[in-house]
Write a structure and sequence with these properties.
This protein is mostly helical and 337 residues long. It has a single domain, classed as Growth Hormone, Chain: A. Helix content is 79%, strand content 0%. It is built from 14 helices and no strands. It is globular. Belongs to the major facilitator superfamily. Monocarboxylate porter (TC 2.A.1.13) family.
Length: 337
């Protein structure tokens, strides 16, 4: 488990490695060529991984960790930034729709790949995934464009924005909680589709994006500590998976939507780069820490410590998001911010 967790952690960390350089890349080479490079990195990593022999070999770390991670980073930043730019009043909904594709992928592809493994073996399942990735990213590269030509912004200009620093710290903390729902990934991925879209709608039309980000994040932490920690039946675990997908999907949508309000469209590339780079550290260390907490008992693994770790991190991030909400709208709880 520890070996596998480090592969995933390396991927998750490198999936945000472009962050500090995103503004430069967007200005110099543009979204299109970032996505073209990503096509070959992401699909090629799957093809090369199909040739590896053991999961603990260097080849798996290089393909599934390094190549796939950097490729994912080159996809993530242009796609999220484009969704933020093209809409104003419905920005939360646009971001939610854009990233809800990951929910569809988790729900559909997990079953497709499992069927491929059962019938064709893991090598061909990786190749099939590579072909699917190639086709989908070609569509992405053809249509994803920024609203305006990206501007070159110095990092100091962004770092001076204190609300963004709060969001950065939230993002840093939130990846540590991804400890994990992966054992419940199928139902969580499906419900996250609803959570991502409804979270955007909640922020756009009901309570405001800052308030929605706070509510979704804090409630995800409460679900971990109140429901998952005390789960003693299959029904409780399923209920947690559904609630986790609903509120966790909401925070994934609302935080980027809040970011656009904080910094404006002129600085969105540089701000996104700083924001999501917070995931690098949480992504690199969060899963191994959680695996160590799960495996801390010699005779039988226990999830309790990892669950507490997750819930506390989420609640702390939610409190920081409340600080942003107060900074932007004051203490009146019913003001849309």
């Amino acid at each position: 488990m520890n070996s596998l967790s480090w592969i995933h952690s390396l991927w998750l960390a490198l999936a945000n490695i472009v962050g500090p350089f995103f503004c430069f890349f967007a200005y110099r080479i543009g979204y299109k060529w970032m996505l073209v490079v990503a096509i070959f990195l992401c699909s090629g990593s799957m093809m090369l991984a199909s040739l590896a022999t053991q999961v603990n070999k260097l080849s798996i770390f290089l393909t599934q960790g390094v190549l796939a991670g950097i490729g994912a980073s080159l996809v993530w930043f242009p796609c999220v930034s484009a969704a933020q730019q093209w809409f104003s009043r419905k920005r939360g909904l646009s971001v939610g729709l854009a990233i809800s594709g990951s929910g569809f992928g988790g729900l559909v592809l997990s079953n497709v790949i499992q069927a491929a493994i059962d019938n064709l073996g893991y090598r061909w399942s990786l190749r099939i995934l590579g072909f699917i990735t190639f086709a989908l990213l070609c569509i992405c590269a053809a249509f994803v464009r920024p609203l305006n030509r990206p501007s070159h912004v110095s990092g100091s200009r962004i770092i001076d924005l204190s609300p963004l620093l709060f969001i950065f710290v939230c993002r840093f903390l939130l990846v540590f909680f991804q400890v994990r729902s992966q054992a419940l990934s199928a139902i969580s991925a499906g419900v996250m589709i609803v959570g991502k879209i409804s979270g955007g709608l909640l922020g756009d039309y009901c309570v405001g994006r800052s308030t929605a980000a706070f509510l979704c994040t804090i409630l995800t932490g409460v679900m971990c500590l109140g429901l998952w920690l005390n789960a003693n039946s299959a029904a409780t675990v399923w209920a947690f998976a559904a609630m986790f997908g609903l509120f966790g999907g909401g925070y994934l949508t609302t935080v980027p939507a809040v970011l656009a309000q904080v910094v404006g469209m002129e600085d969105i590339e540089a701000a996104n780069g700083l924001l999501f780079f917070g995931w690098f550290f949480g992504g690199l260390f969060g899963t191994p820490i959680s695996s160590a907490l799960i495996n801390n008992v010699a005779d039988e693994p226990t999830y309790n410590y990892a669950i507490i770790f997750s819930g506390v991190i989420l609640v702390a991030a939610g409190i920081l998001l409340w600080v942003i909400r107060v900074q932007r709208g004051g203490w009146y709880p019913f003001k849309m911010v």
